Amino acid sequence: MGLSVKTRAVAEKRARRLREAGGKTEYRVDLPAYHADCDANYLRLRKLLPELANREHWRYQMPHGALELSVQSRSRYTTEVCLNASAETGERNWLAPPQITVRLYHDARMAEVVAVDGRGPVGDNGAGFTYPNPRMHCADERQQANRFLGEWLGHCLANGRAEIELILDGRRL
After folding, report:
1. Do the beta carbons of residue 149 and residue 115 sit within 8 Å?
2. Which InterPro entries match (predicted)?
3. I need a labelling partner for 70 at 20 to 30 A (CA). Which of 22, 45, 114, 172 fits?
């Protein structure tokens, strides 16, 4: 039994794309792994953002610097948070993490990187992705950004100390 005309055309198109790409296979998003990263990042961020409904700003002392988290926008089901790391005076900050904007989806309990260093959206939708492209993004740019966020948040949870504002009898201590 032969292939239908439509199926044959799709197979030929796919084969042509493989030849043009030098035999490389087409990138496919690993959706379960991507969702697992976003789920874990949501849980990590919730630990770093106590009282998220009432506060706008958090600061953590890290080895050789600090991490600041601030709410950028809120809506009924989402909150957008900006994470910014800074180095101590005199420290080298050539390896400082970039400023990352994360959207927390409270109904889905997921957190996704939406911008890195103010440039977003991260990655592409995957449809018709070509490389090189004007932004020099890889096909898995979005997944890489979310994995990096997970590693960075894990480091912050393991090594960070919360800076709290203590007010006693109207005096700031």
Report:
1. no
2. DUF1249
3. 172
